[in-house]
Amino acid sequence: MQSRAKAMGHAIHPMLIVFPLGLLATAVIFDIVYLITDRSGFTVASGYMIGAGIVGGLVAALFGFLDWRATPAGSRARRIGMLHGGGNVVVLVLFAISWLLRRGAVDWQPGALALVFSFVGVALAGVTGWLGGELVERLGVGVDDGAHVNAPSSLAHKHV
């Protein structure tokens, strides 16, 4: 099943998900570094990364939703896609709550509750990322129907 939303022959959703995943995971790493070093610059950076990660996640979700709508009703891919997308919505909500809890603090310093929301969010993102991998690697969602090791470039006018 090919992706519905493409740019230059490649699915857009998988190109976009690296941004929110990277930003949100790095925010958690910076929170951990802050807890170890007590340097407030890490909390400020984490707050901005969470904000950017949420925006990036919403954009990626739009293209993921378009692809999900194209999966056959009643299929395993449709069910896993719903878990993947729904779980990622929960991830964004958890990080949004963490961001809101930090917002009014001096230097965006997170309290315990803000950290819990972020840590649970990044753990859930690992699960939903695995589900996304299951969709592509196991179920072939978003993979060109004629894909093989000698397929022509996606920029070629020749279709596989």
TrEMBL record:
Keywords: Membrane, Transmembrane, Transmembrane helix. The lineage of its organism: Bacteria, Bacillati, Actinomycetota, Actinomycetes, Micromonosporales. It comes from the Bacteria. It comes from Micromonospora sonchi. This is Membrane protein. Residues 9-144 form the DUF2231 domain. Pfam families: DUF2231. The chain crosses the membrane at residues 12-36, 48-68, 80-100, 112-131.
